[in-house]
Amino acid sequence: MRLLVVEDEVRLAAALRRGLAAEGFVVETAADGLTGLELARHGDFDAVVLDIMLPRLSGYDVVRTLRKEDNWVPVLILSAKDGEYDEADGLDCGADDYLTKPFSYVVLLARLRALLRRGVSARPAVLEAGDLTLDPATRDVTVAGRPVTLTPREFTLLEYLIRNAGRVVSKTEILDHVWDSPLDTDPNTVEVYVGYLRRKLGHTALQTVRGVGYRLAS
Amino acid sequence: MRLLVVEDEVRLAAALRRGLAAEGFVVETAADGLTGLELARHGDFDAVVLDIMLPRLSGYDVVRTLRKEDNWVPVLILSAKDGEYDEADGLDCGADDYLTKPFSYVVLLARLRALLRRGVSARPAVLEAGDLTLDPATRDVTVAGRPVTLTPREFTLLEYLIRNAGRVVSKTEILDHVWDSPLDTDPNTVEVYVGYLRRKLGHTALQTVRGVGYRLAS
DNA sequence: GAGCGCGCTGTGAGCAGCCTGAGAAGTGCT
DNA sequence: AGCACTTCTCAGGCTGCTCACAGCGCGCTC
Q1: Pairing of strands A140-143, A146-148
Q2: Which of A1, A27, A118 sits opposite B118 (nearest CB)?
Q3: Minimal Cα distance from B108: which residue of A?
Q4: For a tag site, which of A5, A109, A184, B115 has the least CB within 10 Å?
Q5: What's the pLDDT tens digit per position in A135-155?
Q6: How far apart (Å, rounded) are the C-alpha atoms in residues B73 and B116?
Q7: In chain A, where does DSSP find H-type helix?
Q8: Rounded to an integer, what distance in angstroms lies between the CA atom of residue A20 and that of residue A105?
């Protein structure tokens, strides 16, 4: 689990990094709001622990900006302000939890676990064409409901074909998108792999258009 | 927004009902754990405010039972116990938030809003995949009911795999989420640890997808 | 219907990717 | 200091994937 800790107080930041790392988290730290925001944007974190009083950009602003950009990474605010209105403000600007300093380490951990439980669940995106289905996430491929196992190259090729189902795709096009070094790969290799796919998927779906390329019925 | 308030102290229950109704919530109340659980099961609520010390069935048990039944309605625990371990226990048995009495009404509202923002996308407090279970809070791992002891790194790796069960995860992805300095860690290290896990968990669950990564059967 | 060119496929060599055992380095406990 | 344990590196071995090659079939053209 990747965590981002944004905290300017060096000693606390170091303590958090050490403690959380000992729990098995992968921890990155940022010492001010701006770099914290930048990291949160592109760092693919599972949660963010965020101080409020930060140089350059306050914690409030960091959350608000993230939310405005449709980034819903779970955020736990750490704050020295223990007023009820401070807490309410922090939560209302988009944070998911709020702890006041000094905080209990045990509680911080439990609250992080509770946050991580509710991950950002993005799903499906399973491609279909005719009686074929292909799931890029699980790499499951089925023909008429029956599962089929493909080698990596076969899989990539089928994925490309299915994404262009209905269209005729040329061999050069296929080489460009499926092979690493299209220039020194024999176009015959494509024919070979089309053969493999036909054997595994049945001959009906994948038609050859002589002189042009191949076409997967959509 | 429909709220369920489970609270046996009559005056507090009435105050909550009035206050929350004034905020525009539709509020039902229950005065003991059993009827609370029954209502939560079938009442289609958007969130539950739950006391711990309840007649007939404790708040802990209510949450645990709901979660066991795959009911992920957001739960906010209200408790008179303010020990850090009470709070951690409450969260770890599946609640999403924990407030100690006496609490600030403003904060309760803000925390409810934060919960409702998230909606029902929770996952269990103890993770499962196939015949594997893993509890992030207690760090217990079992295979087919039998307990297994893992080293910290093994545990973190399994946790990541189980959180992504069914999906194929690449070695780089694993390095990013499980190792501290992914850049100067040999991908072979991942292979080694996958080997360790297979020896401890049995070879069936953890499949390698050649050229891509690994996949834990879900 | 003959000739030609495109596409198909069986074979096998080469090698990338993965697994594993052995062991070194580091850490904490007794 | 000695021991147990964990982490990680390294080298060797194996599996099975990838791809080139060459011969054959088939459809198109004239």
Answers
A1: antiparallel
A2: A118
A3: A88
A4: A184
A5: 888 888 998 888 898 998 899
A6: 10
A7: 10-22, 33-42, 59-68, 84-92, 105-117, 152-163, 171-178, 187-201
A8: 10
Q: In the predicted model, what is the mean pLDDT of residues B178-205? A: 89
| CB-CB neighbours of A150 under 10 Å | 18
d(CA A44, CA B169): 15
Note the pLDDT of residue A122: 46
Q: How far apart are CA B61 and CA B171, in angstroms?
A: 40
Give the tokens for residue B76. Answer: 């906010």
Q: What percent of chain A has pLDDT over 90?
A: 32
Q: Which one, of B105, B120, B115, lies nearest residue B23 by Cα? A: B105
Task: Count the alpha carbons within 13 Å of B173 in the hemisphere toward its beta carbon.
Answer: 13
What is the nearest nucleotide to A209, using C1' and CA? C7
Q: What is the mean pLDDT of residues B52-64?
A: 93
Q: Which tokens hold the place of B109? A: 């509202």
Q: What is the C-alpha to C-alpha distance for residues A127 and A136, in angstroms, rounded to an integer?
A: 8
Q: How many Å does it take to go from CA B152 to C1' C28?
A: 14
Which tokens belong to A193? 């792999």
Distance of C1' in D14 from CA in B147, Å: 33
Length, in residues, of chain A: 218
B107 vs A166, higher pLDDT: B107
DSSP state of B53: S
Tokens 């064409």 belong to A129
Structure tokens at A204: 């009906």
pLDDT in tens, A104-126: 888 999 999 998 887 655 445 68
User: What value does the mean pLDDT of chain B take?
Assistant: 89
Sorted by sequence, the CB contacts under 8 Å of residue B184 that are 6+ apart come out as none
Residue B90 neighbours by CB under 8 Å, 6+ apart: B52, B59, B60, B63, B77, B79, B98
Can you tell me whether residue A177 is helix, strand or coil?
Answer: helix
Considering only the beta carbons, identify the residue of B110, B122, B155 that sits closest to A117: B122
CA distance B218 to B130: 6
